Amino acid sequence: MLNKLEKSMENCPVTEINGYYYFIHPVTDGLPLVEPELLEEVMNAVIEVGNLDCDYILTAQSMGFPLATALSLKTRLPYKYIRKRSYGLNQEVSISQITGYSSSDMYINFVDKGDKVFLIDDVLSTGGTLRAIVKALKAMEVEIVDTVIIFEKIGVREKLEQELGIKIKSLLKLKMEGANIKIVGKGI
Question: Is the pTM of the predicted complex or chain greater than 0.85?
Fold first, then answer.
């Protein structure tokens, strides 16, 4: 089912940012080259594991953008983005995102109480982005129908699920051993 995705990890470069090892991959960074067949395989897997009984797809800037777009084209569901830019709109909700290598503010617009959303993102690493988004959505009384992440770095998901009260699905589980990446299993 995920042959192309697994194979794409074989020669995946890793860089270090302030002591944090970060892998560079077509699905997570748009580099070195995003092959349509890889993206299609990933979207088919997301559709297979995800509950898409929602009003729309929701994702965070920036690598969630191509994922939400591709998923929208396959499912015909609309999508919305959580941006790193404030538009200063009346109902804008500001959240703080803290990841393994940076921190920034993000802004939620045009998401309303009672909306049913499907969350998709590229990597679950420290949980900083997902934590901020889920807490904000719950405070806004938005229903999170499902959450699917493409790559899960092991050691975070279970604790985050318990903390946030949601189920997090992933396609591939990875273990980072310094600059080395090891696929340790398929997700879900």
Answer: yes
